[in-house]
Amino acid sequence: MSHKTVLVTGASRGIGKAIALCFADAGWSVGISCRKSKNELSEVKKEIESKGCLCFDFAGDMGDYNDAERFIREAQKVLGPIDCLVNNAGISHIGLLSDMSPEEWNRILQTNLTSVFNCCKQIIPGMVARQSGSIINISSVWGICGASCEAAYSASKGGMNALTRALAKELAPSHITVNAIACGAIDTQMNHFLSEEERLQLIDEIPACRLGQPEEVGRLALQLAGEHPYLTGQIITLDGSWI
C-alpha cells in the first residue's frame, strides 16, 4: 500500500480524521482538507507524518468549485496520482424546515452534496485514464429514512446516496468503484450537543447498545478502497442495527 494515495475531505476531526489515520496506518500517502479548522488539520498532518507517511493538507471549502479544484490539483503535485477519494466534508442543521432560511438550506446542500460533485469531477479523469480507483462517500442513515428536524441534512445525504449509485454505473466499465457508508450514531463532536440523558436514551435505541466509533468508519473505508473490486454502487449501513 506504500505507493497508494488517498484524499479525505473534512479531515480535521471526527470521522474524517479517523479515516485519514486508518489509511496512514496502512501506509497510504494522504491528502487532507478542511474548511476552517486549520490548526486542527495541521495536527492531523503531524500525526500522519509521524507514521512515516507523506501528507498534504489544504484549508478550503470543498463546496466551492475553485477550492476543490485547487485542493486536488495541488495534492496531486505533492502526492502523485490519486487512488482513492473519500468525500467526508459535511455539516448538520437541526430545526424545522419552515424555520430554515434559503441561505441555510443552500449551505447544507453545497457543503454536503455539491462538494461531492466538485471533488469527483476533478478526480475522475485521472482514474479513468488509469482504469482504476475508488470513491467513497460518507453518508448517513438519515439519507435512507429521513430525520425529523433534519430535513435539509437528510435531503443532502439522500442525494449523495443516489449520486453514489448512479456514478457507480458510469464508472464501473473503467474499473472504478463508488460506494457510500451510511453512518448511524457515531461518537463525534457532531453529537456532543446531546445531554448525558439524551445520549443514554439514544444508546438505548441502538441494538448494539453503544455508539459507533470513528475508527470503525475508517476501517470500513479502507476495506472498500482496496479489498472489494466487484463491490460498487452500494450504500453500506454502519449503525449497529439502529435503523
Can you give keywords for this protein?
single chain; 243 residues; alpha/beta; Rossmann fold; 7-stranded parallel β-sheet; 8 helices; 7 strands; 16% strand; globular
What do you see in this structure?
- The protein is an alpha/beta fold and 243 residues long.
- The protein has a single domain, classed as Rossmann fold (3-Layer(aba) Sandwich).
- The chain contains 8 helices and 7 strands.
- A 7-stranded parallel beta sheet has the order 3-2-1-4-5-6-7, sandwiched between helices.
- The longest helix is centred in the middle third of the chain and has 29 residues, at 102-130.
- The mean pLDDT is 96.
| Structure summary, number of beta strands | 7
Secondary-structure element pattern, one letter each: EHEHEHEHEHHEHHE
How many helical stretches? 8
**Unreliable residue stretches:** none
Tell me the strand percentage band: 15-25%
Instruction: Indicate the radius of gyration in whole angstroms.
Output: 17 Å
Distance between the termini: 34 Å
Mean residue pLDDT: 96
CATH topology: Rossmann fold
Our count of domains comes out at 1
Main beta-sheet annotation = 7 strands, parallel
Structural class designation: alpha/beta
Shape: globular
